[in-house]
Amino acid sequence: MKLTRLAALAVTGTLLIGGLAACSSTPAASGGAATGAQGECNVGISMPTRTLERWINDGEGLQTKLKGDGCTVDLQYADNKTDQQISQIQNQIAGGAKILVIAAIDGSSLGPVLAEAKKQNITVIAYDRLINGTGDVDYYATFDNYKVGKLQGEFIAKQLGLADGKGPFNLEPFAGSPDDNNAKFFFSGAWDVLLPYVTSGKLVVPSGKSPSSDADWASIGIQGWASDKAQAEMDNRLSSFYTSGQKVNVVLSPNDSLAIGIIASLKSAGYTPGSAYPVLTGQDADKANVQAILNGEQSMTVWKDTRALGDRVQKMIASIVAGQQVEVNDTKTYDNGVKVVPSYLLDPEVVTKDTVQSMLIDSGFLKASDVGQ
Ligand code: BGC
Question: Within 10 Å of residue 370's Cβ, how many Cβ atoms?
Answer without folding.
Answer: 16
